[in-house]
Design a protein that fits this description.
Layout: H1 12-34, H2 39-62, E1 66-71, E2 74-79, E3 90-91, E4 101-104, E5 113-117, E6 123-124, E7 135-137, E8 145-147
Antiparallel strand pairs: 1-2, 1-5, 2-3, 2-4, 5-6, 7-8
Length: 155
């Protein structure tokens, strides 16, 4: 008596169909997954712009000096305890009840700078506010953030 072996496996048409489906998915889905990589950089760019605008508006509204420190992957805001002042002595309270206003990112490094938002709305390179200075903050893979010294406008 002969033993009966059942044949198991895939047929050639089934294998070809699976390969076609995998190829179509690779062409359609892979580029969409890769396009999400730039979202971290874009979010960091928006966080920097938002933090600097918040610092400018707070300085004018509170009539106090606000210091914005932009470093590799972080923006921190602090405020002077009194007016007039040439340095910032207290952390600016953060949103959602945070102890201090800090925006941080895992995105590529930015240029480092300390901006002094004067109560008049001007942006200077020193706390005394003697000379208005324009600043440009570069973010890898994104448009630069510009701050106009005379007006404090962030773009």
């Amino acid at each position: 008596m002969r033993a009966r072996f059942s044949e198991q496996g895939f047929t050639l048409p089934e294998l070809v169909l699976v390969m076609i489906i995998v190829g179509v998915l690779a062409v359609v889905a892979l580029p969409r997954l890769q396009s999400t990589v730039g979202f971290d950089d874009e979010a960091w760019h928006q966080d920097v712009v938002s933090a600097l605008r918040h610092g400018h508006h707070t300085a004018v509204a509170a009539r106090r000096l606000v210091c914005a420190t932009v470093s590799t992957g972080a923006v921190t805001l602090s405020i002077a305890g009194a007016n007039p002042a040439s340095s910032c002595s207290a952390n600016l309270p953060g949103y959602k009840g945070g102890a201090n206003y800090t925006a941080s990112s895992k995105a590529p490094a930015t240029s480092s700078a300390t901006l002094y938002f004067q109560p008049s709305g001007r942006v200077t390179s020193d706390g005394a506010g003697t000379t208005a200075s324009d600043f440009t903050i570069t973010i890898s893979g994104q448009a630069s953030v510009s701050v106009i010294g005379e007006t404090g406008h962030v773009e």
